[in-house]
């Protein structure tokens, strides 16, 4: 590769402006000697309301020095506990969601469940699900169909977004590049299918 091109690439910035970065804690706690996942149902008046999720949120370039700090800060806000009450074991593999978010998850343990005071503005309620549930229960899988296209249709006419012919790509690349079913394996679905696990 041309060294002049390499000299123009800023390798210090790992952020892609097209993605939103989030730090999340895959949070576990021990109850009667068994590990439980700590999940939350998101409050009604915030984005993604009603969804069941791990605690976490958006990376803030001003407040956060790392994605782990994001995850801890957001968990403190949502669950009303201190970072001192959380032991982080390490970072898990990043996930790029279908809506363009890069999820940076960290495996962590909540030391004391009694110190939780959920923020009602963000968290409707907490849900504790035993790890054994996911080991024993067969999960129902749903799919969505995604297409990668080089054009969009406006008033019935194709407007090409990517000039395939100009960059020398073959004709087969002119329209649909990929058409594939993707599984959605959501903990939200798992919990909703087994409502008896949701405490009143």
Summarize the structure.
With 200 residues, the protein is of the alpha+beta class.
Describe the structure.
With 200 residues, this protein is α+β, with helices and mostly antiparallel strands. It has 2 domains: 17-133, Nucleoside Triphosphate Pyrophosphohydrolase (Alpha-Beta Complex), CATH 3.90.79.10; 143-181, no CATH class. It is 16% helix and 38% strand. It contains 4 helices and 12 strands, in the order αββββαββββαββββα. Strands 1, 2, 3, 4, 5, 6, 7 and 8 form an 8-stranded mixed beta sheet that branches. It has a two-stranded antiparallel ribbon with strand order 9-12. The chain starts with a helix and ends in a 7-residue tail after the last helix. 14% of the residues are buried. Residues 1-13 and 185-200 have low confidence and may be disordered.
